[in-house]
Specification:
- The N and C termini lie far apart (51 Å).
- It is globular and about 60 Å long.
- The protein has ten helices and 16 strands.
- A hairpin with a 6-residue loop joins strand 1 (18-20) and strand 2.
- The chain is an alpha/beta fold and 329 residues long.
- The relative contact order is 0.15.
- The chain binds threonylcarbamoyladenylate and magnesium ion.
- Threonylcarbamoyladenylate is lined by residues 22, 24-25, 27, 51-54, 85, 87, 89, 101, 104, 106-108, 112, 130-132, 169-170, 172, 183-184, 214-217.
- Threonylcarbamoyladenylate binds at residues 22, 24-25, 27, 51-54, 85, 87, 89, 101, 104, 106-108, 112, 130-132, 169-170, 172, 183-184, 214-217.
Length: 329
């Protein structure tokens, strides 16, 4: 066992919080039975208490201790997609602190696909509550260095598990009896879920527009880099772009849904975010390329939406790009 791993274990044992690697993005984790750790997660992230945390488990048996309903849908999806980037929201038992679920009846549960984190949870024998390891509303981290930099003043131990393989956050699906709703898109697509449930002849039906109350973490803006991102969906010259961006930005409020809108100080120079034309690779690159762009001393970052950026394979990444953008033109 490495000393870094042992240190992570010790911190969590004594009720502190730790940066943990997963296949999606890094998390900021605390034991679900340590109230102080859960409170500290919200505090260091500046996260409002209305936005619930996902609980990470190392086995299906552990997941079952957290929820009072584990029907065929949960069983089939867990067996097919865990460990992996799928979070299921299921009716919670009393062992889950209401602080974790923001007082909601359901708890978000997932088994991450990362050996170090699975070993950490298994060694503790206690699930870990972990949101993405970034300040509220800001870009998610896909390396240990991103987490260290984000919480540079908070002295948080980060377990380095390399670069995140998926690169964007898990698909979040609310499961209520036979009804399913996707609260956040991700690498696991709706068609993947439909396919496996059909295969096992499970009865289900998708609810298209989930109730806002069931999805408190849905803000218009989120995942924002430290330098404003402008998403360009229409053809525009560089000169018009600067003019249009300036006038639109000036009309925007400083805060939307409690998230601070990142605005440029000047509109002189910009840097272009470029991503692979393969959606899986593009998702893996997204947050680190976005951070690299933000480090280049430009006034703003631009991203051109291309013709091929449509359809199911791009949906989850575009959800992140749209929300990360201060402005769409
Ligand atoms: O891939 C991931 O899911 C990463 C890694 C670390 O596991 N975690 C993550 O957590 O993205 P976070 O907190 O940044 O995003 C979790 C989302 C939020 O939008 C939150 O509102 C929603 O899931 N969520 C969590 N628990 C919920 C619940 N009980 N009911 C409804 N939504 C929930
Ligand atoms: Mg997050």
């Amino acid at each position: 066992m490495s000393t870094e791993f042992q240190k992570a274990l010790d911190c969590l044992q004594k009720g502190d919080i730790v940066g943990i690697p997963t296949e999606t993005v890094y998390g900021l984790a605390g034991r679900i039975d340590q109230n102080n750790a859960i409170e500290k997660i919200f505090k260091v992230k500046n996260r409002p208490f209305f936005d619930p945390l996902i609980v990470h488990v190392s086995s299906i048996a552990m997941a079952k201790t957290l929820c009072c309903q584990w029907d065929q849908i949960a069983e089939v999806l867990a067996k097919k997609f865990w460990p992996g980037p799928l979070t299921m929201i299921l009716p919670k038992t009393t062992i889950v602190n209401p602080l974790i679920t923001s007082g909601l009846d359901g708890v978000g549960i997932r088994m991450p696909r990362h050996d170090l984190t699975l070993k950490l949870i298994e060694s503790l024998g206690v699930p870990l509550a972990a949101p993405s390891a970034n300040k509220f509303g800001r870009a998610s981290p896909t390396s240990a260095a991103h987490v260290k930099r984000e919480f540079i003043d908070d002295n948080i131990h980060v377990l380095d598990g390399g670069i995140c393989e998926v690169g964007i956050e898990s698909t979040v699906v609310l499961v209520k009896n036979n009804d399913l709703s996707i609260l956040r898109s991700g690498h696991i697509k709706r068609s993947d879920i439909e396919k496996v449930l059909d295969e096992f002849k499970v009865e289900f039906h998708f609810i298209e527009n989930p109730n806002k109350k069931e999805s408190p973490g849905h803000m218009k803006h989120h995942y924002m880099p430290s330098v404003p991102l402008v998403l360009i969906e229409n053809t525009i010259s560089d000169i018009d772009l600067k003019k249009e961006a300036l006038s639109k930005m000036n009309q925007m409020p400083n805060e939307i849904d409690g998230v601070q809108i990142i605005k440029p100080k000047n509109f002189d120079n910009f840097v272009e975010l470029s991503l692979s034309s393969d959606p899986v690779l593009a998702a893996r690159q997204f947050y680190s390329h976005l951070r690299n762009c933000a480090d280049q001393n430009a006034d703003f970052i631009i991203f051109y939406k291309k013709k091929y950026h449509v359809g199911e394979f791009w949906e989850a990444l575009f959800d992140r790009i749209k929300k990360a953008a201060s402005l769409t033109i």
